[in-house]
Amino acid sequence: ERPDAYAPKPGDLICFSHTRRPLRFEDVPRRRAFPAHCDIVVANQATVMTAVGGNVDDAVTEKHVPVTEDGRLSNAGAAPLDSRYPWFIVLRVGYEQ
Description:
The protein is mainly beta. It contains no helices and 5 strands. The chain has strands at 13-17, 36-44, 48-56, 59-66, 87-91. The protein has a 5-stranded antiparallel sheet with strand order 4-3-2-1-5, with no helix packed on it. It is globular and about 30 Å long.
């Protein structure tokens, strides 16, 4: 999902690029892996999302990511609100309910 079109829910993955020139949603290859780091969303509240990622400086880390009022990583057509990480895709996880 596009970071400006979908508000991640707990269990979804948010990803940023590992490339020199950050990937955009439009650049994501559809049939193979892409160079990125993904964190698991554990909470999404009014102005901040909490995500957990592993293998970060040999540790598991928690990030507090600013979000729009409706929980998205960016506004329509805009850069992500969190300038520390170029979030470019949300992987919606379809867990069995």
